[in-house]
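note to self: dont lose this again. the chain is below, predicted strucutre after it. 729 aa total, dont forget to put it in the shared folder this time
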Amino acid sequence: MGVGEGKLPLFETRVRKGRTLYHLYALSVLLAICLILVYRALYIPANGEKGRWAWIGLSMAEIWFGFYWILTQSLRWNLVYHHTFKDRLSTRYKDKLPGVDIFVCTADPKIEPPIMVINTVLSVMAYEYPTEKLSVYLSDDGGSDVTFYALLEASRFAKAWIPFCKKYKIEPRSPGAYFKEASSGPDDGLREWLDIKRLYEEMENNINSVANSGVVNNDIRKQHKGFSEWSGTATPRDHQPIVKIIIDGRDGARDFEGDVLPTLVYMAREKRPHRHHNFKAGAMNSLLRVSSEISNGALILNVDCDMYSNNSETIKDALCFFMDEEKGHEVAFVQLPQHFNNVTKNDLYGNSILSISEIDFHGLDGYGGPLYIGSGCYHRRESLLGKKYDQTHKLELVAREREYKLTSLDLEERAKNLITCTFEDNTEWGNKIGLKYGCPVEDVITGLSIQCNGWKSVYFNPRQRGFLGVAPVTLEQVLVQHKRWSEGDFQIILSKYSPISYGRSKITIGLQMGYATYCLWAPCSIPTLYYAIIPPIYFLHGISLFPDASDSWFLPFAYVITVTFIYSLVESLMVGYTAKGWWNEQRIWFYKRLASYPFALFDTALKQIGIAKSAFVITAKVASDEVLQRYDKEVIEFGSASVPFVIIATVAVLSPICLIIGLWRLPVVQGVGMMGSMLAQVIICGVVTLINLPVYEAMLVRLDAGRIPTLVTLISLTLSCFAYVLPLH
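---
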C-alpha cells in the first residue's frame, strides 16, 4: 500500500455542470406561470357569461400544474454523479470483504417463465466476487416444483458456467442474454464456448419442456430428495414452508475448475388460504430471516426475477460506498437504475424511463439519496432490520465467520420455522423491522423509513448498465403497471408514511419534494383530463378560454408551452432518446394520465373508505409471437375493449371533431377575426390530434388483432358527438 493510500476515498462525487443556466431557465418559467395565474384571476368572466365555469376549472388545473412543476424542480436543481475506485477497494481490503446475500423473488411460473428466473440466478452467481462469500436465495411465492426443478438444473449448469465467465471475463453473465448476443466465442476458447452453449441449450430445453407441461415426472423426482415436499396436496396458496440448500458453500462444493461454488438456496414460505402473505414484502422479510440463519451476509442485494446482472463488478462498486472510511458508515442502500433489454429503437411505450434514471434520481441524490425501487439495490442488513443510524457508533461491514457446526439439514429445519404463517404474529416485522406492509409499493416506504432513521442512500449509475430486465410489450400492460405504481405512491402520501409529515425534519425539503413528485402522479390525471377535453369542446362552440394571440397576456402561455417543450426535447436527446422516442414518451405520458392514473385515484378513494383492499398485480413477462412481432415493428397494441382504451379513443376522436367543426364555424358564424382568440385552443386540439395518429390508424386502417375493436370506435364516436349538443355555461 502506497503512502497515504489508506486515506484516499473509495468514491468521488461530482456536481452537474451548467446548473446556473438551468436555474435561470427554471426561474423564467416560474415567472411565466405566475403571470398566467394573474391573468386568470384578473379576467375571470362575469356571472352569467359563457365560459365562466370552464375558466375557473382551467385556473384550478393551471394552479395544480404550476404547483406540480415546482415540485419537479427538486429532481433537476442539484444533480450529482458518483465515480467509484474499485482498485483501491481491492488493494485496501483484499480478504476482508464482507459476505453478500442475493435475493431473487418470483411468484408465478406461468407469468414469470422459470428459464427467465434461472438466467437471473445464474447471472448473480457468476459475479466477480469471492464465491465463498456469495450466497444466492430464490424465493418462490408460487411454491412450484417446476421452479425448484429449474433451480436444480441451474445448479448443475453453474459448475461449467461460472468458471467459463471468470476465465474469459464475459458480459453479460446471464447465459440466455449472452448467447443471444454472441455469435461466436473467444478465439482462444471456441471449443469450450461451443460446449457451454450446448449445455445451456440442453438445460433450456429441459426446463421449458417441464414448464410447458406443468408436471415434473417421477424420473426427475427421484434425482433429488427435495421433491418430497410436493408429494402431498400442496398448492401455490396452501403449502408448508420449504427451504432447500441446493449448494452449500461450506461443504466444499466445487465447479469444474475446482473452485468453490456460491451457496444456493430455494425458499417457499408457508401459505394458507386464510392468512394474508403481504406479497413481495412478506417474501423479502422471509428471505431476511432465512439468510440470517444460513449465511448472514452483511450486504444484501435484491433483484426481480427478470432483472439479470449485466455488470459483474457492481458488488465492488456498491462496496466502495459502504466501505469508504469517511462516509461509508452513513450509507444504508445503494440503488442502481432499472434498464430493459427489449426496448425498441424509438421506445414505443416509454419503457426505458431514461428521464428518471438519467436525470431524476441524480437530482434526488443531491438531497440525500434516491428512492428504493425494489430491484437492483444493495442494502446494509442492519438498516433493513430497522436499526437507526448513530453517528457516534460506526457500523462497519466486516467479513463474518460462517456457521460450520450445523449440517445443511439442521439449517433447513431451523430456517423453516422462520417462514411459517404465524411467525410474524405479535412482532414488529413489516412495521419497524424489515420491509413495510400495507402498501403496493412497499419498497418506496421502506426506503423512506430507512432515510427517516437517519441513513443516507446513494444512486449509482454505472456506464455499463448494472441490470437489464423485461419491459411490457403491450399498452395494456404498461397502463396496468403504472396504475399499480401510481396507486401505491398515492397511498403513501395519504398514510402515516407521507414524506411531507413523516419526513418532516428527518429528511431534506428537496427530498420530500422529490418523493411528493411520484406520490402525486395519480392526482395529475384530473387536470390533464380537463385540459384535454374542455378547451376543445368550448372551441367547438366558439367560446374562447385563452387570451387573444395579439394580446400581451398571450406571451406567458406561449413561453411556457414553447420553452418547456424545447427543453424536454433537448434533455431527452441528451440522455439517449431519439426524436421519435421523445414523441412516443409524450404520448405514453399522456395516455398514463388519461387512462391509468384516474383508476389509481379511484381505487385509492375506495380503499380509503374501506370498500376495496390493496392488491399486487404481477406484470406479465410473456406474450404471443404476433404481439412481439408488432412490438418489434413499433406498432401499438390495443386489442381489447377495456375502459382505458375507451377513454383514450374518446379523447382521440373528440379533438379532430372539435378542430374541424370549430374551424368551419369560425368564418361562418363569428368571422376570421375570432381566430386569434382561439389560437391556443386550436393548438391544443392539433397537438392532441397529432399525438393520437396511431389511434386513428388502429381504428380505420389496421386489420390485425392489435387494432382497436369496432365496439370501442363506436362508443368513442358516440361520446364525442355529445360534445356538439352539450349546453355550456
